[in-house]
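User: Here's a structure from my thesis project, written as structure tokens. My advisor, Dr. K., wants to see whether a designed sequence matches the one we expressed. Can you design one independently, without my sequence as a hint?
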């Protein structure tokens, strides 16, 4: 596992900061595996995340069936990256589209997103399910019974 942290600045002011947890996956089996030693030695070890030290314990669940609203969103060719995968930023675009359709802010103050499974490149549309809860709005990006991502936004 590895962490990636970033900041987006406007002048000297931080307007966005983020932490992501990256896992090493065997592409053939789609299973987690150990990072090869020769690759691991090129990266810093034991450097915990600064912005969100609890990311390893982040537990997010899809919204319950009761109280959820679902919005279909088209997957466009431009949502794919050079490797033929739906780009990570497209997931946020899908979420923003659903938030606007639900009459909610498309610029939440906090977004927590957990990728569950990649969206296949031949997917024509996904559904974004939204359900308010005490801390904001819980969401899921899915297609039928297949869950691609879950998360929580705060306003």
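Assistant: Designed independently from the structure alone:
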């Amino acid at each position: 596992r590895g962490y990636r942290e970033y900041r987006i600045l406007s002048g000297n002011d931080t307007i966005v900061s983020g932490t992501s947890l990256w896992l090493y996956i065997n592409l053939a089996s789609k299973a987690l595996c150990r990072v090869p030693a020769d690759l691991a030695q090129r990266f810093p070890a034991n450097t915990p995340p600064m912005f969100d030290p609890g990311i390893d314990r982040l537990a997010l669940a899809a919204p319950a069936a009761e109280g959820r609203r679902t919005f279909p969103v088209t997957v466009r060719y431009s949502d794919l990256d050079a490797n033929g995968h739906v780009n990570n930023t497209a997931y946020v675009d899908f979420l923003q589209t659903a938030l606007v359709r639900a009459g909610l802010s498309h610029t939440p103050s906090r977004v927590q997103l957990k990728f569950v499974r990649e969206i296949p490149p031949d997917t024509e549309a996904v559904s974004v399910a939204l359900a308010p809860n005490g801390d904001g709005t819980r969401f899921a990006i899915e297609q039928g019974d297949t869950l691609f991502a879950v998360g929580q936004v705060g306003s």
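When you compare it with your expressed construct, this may help: The chain is about 10% helix and 40% strand.
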